[in-house]
Amino acid sequence: MLKDKYPSLSTTDLKKCALIQLGLPSKEMADIMAIGADSVSASRSRIRKKMNLTRDVNLVEYLGSIN
């Protein structure tokens, strides 16, 4: 569903969206994906950009509303 609505999202972006939707903190996401916490923040920004969302949109709530 998410890939249909936003075809520009990569497989890695979709994995990160799943973790974001679970409501995991950035630190836990970083540990799971073996990346730095800064990278998680950058990833969230890139995902928002690909979805044309502003920073004031709660990504967890938005991703939950799509399904």
Quickly give the CATH architecture: Orthogonal Bundle
By secondary-structure content and strand pairing, the structural class works out as mainly alpha
Number of strands: 0
Given this structure, which CATH class is correct?
Answer: Mainly Alpha
Uncertain parts:
none
- Could you please say which CATH topology applies here? Arc Repressor Mutant, subunit A
- The CATH superfamily is Winged helix-like DNA-binding domain superfamily/Winged helix DNA-binding domain
Helical content (DSSP H or I, runs of 4+): 55-70%
Give the H and E element order.
HHHHH
Biggest pleated-sheet summary: none
Distance between the termini: 7 Å
Strand content: under 5%
Counted by DSSP, the helix tally is 5
- Total number of domains: 1
What best-fitting shape do the alpha-carbon axes yield?
Answer: globular
Average pLDDT number: 93
Radius of gyration: 11 Å
Verbal overview:
- The chain is mostly helical.
- The chain is built from five helices and no strands.
- The longest helix has 14 residues, at 37-50.
- The protein is globular, with a radius of gyration of 11 Å.
Question: What tags apply to this protein structure?
Answer:
mainly alpha, 67 residues, 5 helices, 67% helix, Arc Repressor Mutant, subunit A
